[in-house]
Amino acid sequence: MEIKYTPVIGLEIHIQLNTASKMFCGCSAGIWKAKPNTHVCPVCLGLPGALPVINKTAVEKAIMAGFAFNCQINKFTKWDRKNYFYPDLPKGYQISQYDLPLCQNGWFELKSKPTFKVGNAVVEPKPTLKVGETDTTKKIRIRRVHLEEDTAKSLHRDDATLLDFNKSGIPLLEIVTEPDISSAEEAVEFGKRVREILRAIGATEGNMERGQMRFEVNISIQQSTINNQQLPPYKVEVKNINSFRFLKQATEYEIRRQTEFLEKGKAPIQETRGFDETKSITFTQRFKEETQDYRYFPEPDLPPLRFTDEEIETLKSKIPKLPQILIQEIISELGISENQAKILAKNRKAFISAKALITGGIEPQKAANLIINRPEVLAMKPEELLEKIKIEEESRVGDRDELSVIIQKVIRDNPNPIRDYQSGKKEALKFLIGQVMRVTSGRADPQVTKETLENLLQQSKPTLDK
Hints:
With about 475 residues, this protein is α+β, with helices and mostly antiparallel strands. The chain folds into three domains: about 5-315, no CATH class; about 325-395, no CATH class; about 400-460, Arc Repressor Mutant, subunit A (Orthogonal Bundle). It is built from 13 helices and 18 strands. It has helices at about 55-70, 185-200, 245-265, 310-315, 325-335, 340-345, 350-360, 365-375, 380-395, 400-415, 415-420, 430-440, 445-460, and strands at about 5-15, 70-75, 75, 80-85, 95, 105-110, 115-120, 120-125, 135-150, 155, 160-165, 170-175, 215-225, 235-240, 270-275, 280-285, 295-300, 305. Strands 1, 2, 6, 7, 8, 9, 12, 13, 14, 15 and 16 form an eleven-stranded mixed beta sheet that branches. The protein has a three-stranded antiparallel beta sheet with strand order 5-4-17, with no helix packed on it. Strand 15 (about 270-275) and strand 16 (about 280-285) form a beta hairpin.
């Protein structure tokens, strides 16, 4: 009998905020490509007697992030010490937040994903939540958004571990979801939307190659039943994932691994695992820690934070239109496709330029494609760009008879690509279009060129003799 299983997935996303200085000291946070241990001081090195000072900008950006994810903003919050011993943590504890985070109880709407099979088992997304749902979306609840300090960077070489404390103390925003994610695809999609939103509000660059965004994914599997609302009795955490591709691979591997355990009548072990990027598998690191293992207690060297209604509303008013809202407005206002709108929403200058072209009489799809495919035109003022495009339009070779003569010559001059196209290599058509554009110095209308070429090539085998 076919048994159905549902992945139960929660994400912890760590994002470095783009502040000028570190979280609790005045050291520069611009550490990219800096020499090791050159952006350090007694505070980020954890030297005895050094006292932390709160970075106000980091706190403000964290609150704005909370608003962006529909969170409750706490007017009173405090700092806590998270105690554990590891070489990259010189104090023996990390300044973080425990029971009173800056923001909590938020949500974000996400598109749902399909089912897939593992052997005889069907793995399917969690049943759609009833509140605020449509047929294609689900709400991912945000448990908390809080601030903490980043740790040092460990470099493992042969039998030695080297430490670079430039990263120690960088402001780190942590976003923790409830276990509402049901597939690797949903996990990746959620991660991408988080980065998109935080970039839009100016909180981070989110550059994964620079270590500015990392994932920890908690995964367990339960048998699917209509009324099964209980969480599985275990969870596996996979730590320090630094790309969307690896997030997808690690999550898919764990779903398969745990489902195979359950298919054999065994229970997966609750543990912390790492991800081997070369083999695309996870591996055991240690048994999963519980909250009490960190021995949280209030940070005695930092005062609690208290906010007035006015301060919170001021920060809320600074949040720009978020990408999903802006995308719908762009589609409605400009009459372009959703994919085009998504690209333009990421760059306000691109949106303004596209709008100027459309208002000036350029067809919407053409205007959007121009801005997207020729980013160099953004260096021009919108009115200058519109004038340039109109001049190009006037000088464009769009007459089919005129183009036909040019294309027939291109066909005669390029027998090998013609044979390639006729043998099924459709990419040869792009080469031929390029040749037409070269002959006309870019004045040929690309769409008319493509249609005319296809018609000539389909009518009959062209004469290749010169």
